[in-house]
Amino acid sequence: MKALCVVLCLSVLLGSAILSRAQLPDDASTKLSAVAMLLRQHHHSEVSGPVFDLDQIEEMALAANPEIRVAVRKLAVVEAHVPAAGSLDDPSFMYRGWQVPLRQPWNYNAAQNMFMISQTLSGPGKRGLRTSVAKGDVAEAKAALEATRLEVRIRVRKAFYDLLRAEDGLRIHDQHVDIAQQAVAAAKIKYSVGKVPQQDVLKAQMSLTRLAEHLIHFEQDTDLARARLNTLLGRDPSAPIDVHGDHVISTPLPSIVTLEKMALQSRPDLIQMQAAVDKSHTEEALAKKTYSPDFTVSAGYMLMPRGSEFRNNYMVEGSINLPWLNRRKHDAEIAESTAKVTEQDAELGAMRSSAFGQIQEALIEARAAQRLANVYQQSLQPQAEATLHSTVIAYENNRTEFLDLLDSQMTVIDLDLAYLQALADFEARLADLELAVGAPIDQVQKSSSEVTQ
Question: At 56, which CATH number?
């Protein structure tokens, strides 16, 4: 690339005097000036904002993301319900006045005055099962929180690598803008002395226009990725932010068996569904406890009418409900809970099957994207660089045309951009794979190596 720059600079310097006397037609000059102005307007500039790496970005998102905060509050709500779920019902106080004279309704000394406190006691095991059901709600909420954190982390990773790729693309363009402008100037010089037709100048103009087109797309991608990243971080979408880091093309991908085993342990939606199944089994056991009767015990003090032999008395009372006389209702409740267990067992099996399918698809796509990126990195880019180097040498020895040199340079640019896109595709597919597994790939590899040892 340096050789190309030197050649073009020499061409511009040697032809500057000629160019001052022989200019392009007004229409061609106007078009070239317009394209050059467009390119300058979209030239990449550094973002005057904080710079973060991926670990810092993920940590910020987990702490400040609005969706995670909502999930945390939902968990707090269900956790607060657990102590109340297995508690006793409120005790009750009762006053009863018997035999109050109608002609003297104020004369309670002639009446029997009874004061009583009652407490209902649930059948054996019911309170513990109600607490277990409430704890099942907590387990579901915790899994939902982990699912939200995982989804946010994956979206953050995608936005991070989108921004990193877009900024890398802009930097690649920055490296080639001056060279492309020098190529146009060299073409104008050769055209002015009659060595090349106007068609060559127009092709040089097209190369500038393509750079301007790429810059527009990359600046759009940069702004969109920055807005998405800021939103995930709970910041103003328009706030300045920049990222730095390395691409992860060398990440080894685990086997499908390892990924499936890890998914059963780590995937939040499967954990949430398993918690729902466990809660349904507890609810079924609680429904079957319906035929275990509840008891109500009472104790009280009775003040008899004045003149009675025993004016101060106490009383005790006990009652029991009779669920066996309402079998139709309770049998229906048990049947409903059993049907719910069966349905959720089937749903869990379907979710596991779907999860394995998602893992398989994500792994296939990730492997293909990784191979494609390696092809660009190990074959196409070196070949294009070698072609450009040989073209520069040929041009220096007048054995090739200037536009061949320009085409070689544009090929290098296109392959550089294609490699960045391949990297972005792999990183996106890798993020999808982590979402399907429910854990970072490096964590999966660590767990696999520990099991092997």
Answer: 1.20.1600.10
